[in-house]
Amino acid sequence: MAASTDIYNSAQSHPVRELRIVLIGGRYNDRLSSKSSAGNFILGQNVFNTSRRTAQSEAKQQEVFSRRVTVVDTPGWWWRGPREATPKLDQIEIQNSVHLCPPGPHVFLLVIPVNLYLSQLVKTSQKQHLELFSANVFSHTIVLFTAVAPCSDETVESKIRTSPVLQWILQQCGNRKHFLNISNREDRDQVKKLLEKIETLITNNGFRHCSVDRNQGETLRKEMRDLTERASKRFDQVQKQRKKLKLQIKGRLQLY
Question: Record's family (predicted)?
Fold first, then answer.
């Protein structure tokens, strides 16, 4: 316990001036509890679009409590779906997120809405999708619970006690967690405490960020270009076929 206290005190006496955060997790119907909303809440600005699904990883930066904070939003996966159900382009975008905050993220925030039902399928999906990152991803992850309706810490703790899947997820992440009540946008103390927890995690990790393979980044960008080009060609082919079909129908109608 004393060692843990020393680490926490060290983090507070030597605050990190730059924090690089990657938001990860599944899709959720309530966009107010989504990763994008959490990113906006952390940065204190509406910089991520919450009116649509996140299709590409995107990095935004703001000064927050005298720290330069970079947040990367990522496409979500289906909470109960296997990795094969996630489109290949989404998988590539998720992997590429770590290359948008060089030299690499300090922390992954695994965003889980408090109201989400966590079945065993969620556990399997979680394991498969986190394999998209490096092997040390769990040692750099904090579980971030989000809610938009009034919700207490006790509600979150009760959910944890009654959910074996959630207990497993937290165990993988070293039982690191934080709760954001997104409905209370004026309570910036929630964000300050989160940044302090991130700094403690950075200290625990010896001030090392999550390892990033630069060569992989180049490979991912090439894959994205190839996939986009193939999709564009398919779209053009479909458009040509539709135009041809319309002309055929028009020609037949003129015969009558």
Answer: Belongs to the TRAFAC class TrmE-Era-EngA-EngB-Septin-like GTPase superfamily. AIG1/Toc34/Toc159-like paraseptin GTPase family. IAN subfamily.
In sequence order, what are the beta bridge partners of 113?
146
Q: How far apart are CA 164 and CA 241, in angstroms?
A: 52
Cis omega (within 30 of 0) for bond into 82: no
Segment holding 189, helix H or strand E: helix 189-204
125, two tokens:
């999906």
| Distance in angstroms (rounded) separating the CA atoms of residues 227 and 233 | 10
Residue 177 CB partners (closer than 8 Å, separation 6+): 142, 143, 144, 145, 156, 170
What are the tens digits of pLDDT across the range 60-115? 999 999 999 999 999 999 999 999 999 999 999 999 999 999 999 999 999 999 98
**Total residues found in the chain within this entry:** 256
CATH architecture of 2-212: 3-Layer(aba) Sandwich (3.40)
What type of residue is 28? Y
For 213, left (φ over 0), alpha (ψ -120 to 50), or beta?
beta
Which helix (H) or strand (E) element contains residue 215? helix 214-255
The owner of tokens 């094969």 is 84
Q: Is 255 helix (H, G, I), strand (E, B) or coil?
A: helix
Residue with the two structure tokens 């927050």 = 64
> Measured between alpha carbons, how far is 103 from 87 in angstroms, rounded to an integer?
27
Q: What pTM value is reported for the model?
A: 0.82
**Helices 2-13/189-204 angle, 10° precision:** 110
In 55-192, beta strands by DSSP E:
58-64, 67-73, 107-113, 141-147, 177-181
Give yes or no for a contact between 78 and 94, defined as CB atoms under 8 angstroms apart. no
Residue 188: C-alpha distances to residues 88, 121, 163, 193 (Å) = 37, 35, 29, 9
